[in-house]
Write a structure and sequence with these properties.
The protein is of the alpha/beta class. Helix content is about 30%, strand content about 30%. The chain folds into 2 domains: about 1-145 and about 290-310, Rossmann fold (3-Layer(aba) Sandwich), CATH 3.40.50.2020; about 145-285, Rossmann fold (3-Layer(aba) Sandwich), CATH 3.40.50.2020. The strands form 3 sheets. It has a 7-stranded mixed beta sheet, sandwiched between helices. Strands 1-4-5-6-7 form a 5-stranded parallel beta sheet, with helices on both faces. A hairpin with a 5-residue loop joins strand 2 and strand 3 (about 35-40). The longest helix has 17 residues, at about 60-75. The protein is globular and about 60 Å long. Bound molecules: ribose-5-phosphate.
């Protein structure tokens, strides 16, 4: 087995390597003077089982191109099998043609990864589970729920209600509610534009409870803040948020800082959290052990179903 990484999240790759007890392979991933990506794998990978750890998080286009070029380099270096380990799958939200003349970019990206030469994909909390079907290669889809819930277990919070900020997230919120032995509520919202939503109703009992808002992505923070404001109006006691992928773009961090009733935002390390985004309210839990376990099992040709059996 060999683990390769680019510039998207080298810290996560190092953590995965530590769990697997294998060294991170020596790979040059830099830029030519005009900005084109330059890759060279500095050690032989002939006949090896290669895992390329590279979330396609912002800057998504740079990280995606690095991933594609690393796959190409490994393929041309006679790697036996190449698994693209993409803890955060960028462009995943563009997964359907919901208005005229728009692309299905999540499918286009899948085509590119397959065309580059990946044999399989290992990913986590896809925006929509159906994206697995966009690939004509094997996809193993992990969930961060257990890692997140271990964090909440330690907090020993009482009188909990898990809240899904939209109807699309009900299945995952239900799994969290079951796992945390909590009630379930749903925010019924209407999306006015890609960056603006309006909350219509809250379905379920939240008054006097500690709410845990569960989502796959936090980008501008708009959906989260609106859900928090709606929960405040309904008289919740305090609010936590558990979100797998912390993109935290634009003024998201400032908005969260100003949001008094949000106690903590818990995110995974699928996307690196830059220094200026590291505020006390944002807690990061590591998905490295989960990803490492999946990589080891894939390498050993063992079942990984025990790692994602959480949404029944
Ligand atoms: C929407 O369907 C997703 O699950 C997230 O709620 C959304 O992408 C978050 O984006 P933002 O933080 O920009 O509202």
């Amino acid at each position: 087995m060999k683990i390769i990484t680019g510039n998207a999240n080298p810290e996560l790759a190092k953590e995965i390597c530590a769990h697997l007890n294998v060294p991170l392979s020596d790979v040059l991933v830099s830029r030519f003077s005009e900005g084109e990506i330059r890759v060279q794998i500095k050690e032989s990978v002939r006949g090896r089982d290669i895992f390329i750890v590279q979330p396609t998080c912002p800057p998504a286009n740079e990280n995606l191109m690095e991933l594609l070029i690393m796959i190409d380099a490994a393929r041309r270096a006679s790697a036996k099998r190449i698994t693209a380990v993409i803890p955060y799958y960028g462009y995943g939200r563009q997964d359907r043609k919901d208005r005229p003349r728009v692309p299905i970019t999540a499918k286009l990206i899948a085509n590119l990864i397959v065309a580059a030469g990946a044999h399989r994909v290992l990913t986590m909390d896809l925006h929509a589970t159906q994206i697995q079907g966009f690939f004509d290669i094997l996809v193993d889809h992990l969930y961060a729920i257990n890692v997140m819930c271990e964090y909440f277990d330690k907090k020993n919070l009482k009188n909990l209600v898990v809240v899904s900020p939209d109807v699309g997230g009900i299945k995952m919120a239900r799994a969290y509610a079951k796992r945390l032995r909590a009630g379930l509520a749903i925010v019924d919202k209407r999306r006015e534009s890609p960056e603006k939503t309006e909350v219509m109703h809250i379905l379920g009992t939240v008054k006097g409870k500690t709410a845990v808002l569960v989502d796959d992505i936090i980008a501008t923070g708009g959906s989260m803040i609106e859900a928090i404001e709606a929960l405040e109006k309904k008289g919740v006691k305090e609010i936590y948020a558990a979100v797998t992928h912390g993109i935290l773009s634009g003024s998201a961090i400032d908005r969260l800082k100003d949001c008094r009733s949000l106690k903590e935002l818990v995110i995974s390390n699928s996307i690196p959290l830059s220094k200026q985004k590291q505020i006390s309210k944002v807690k990061v839990v590591s998905a490295a052990a989960l990803l490492a376990e999946a990589i080891q099992r894939i390498h050993d040709e063992e079942s990984i179903s025990c790692l994602f059996d959480v949404t029944n």
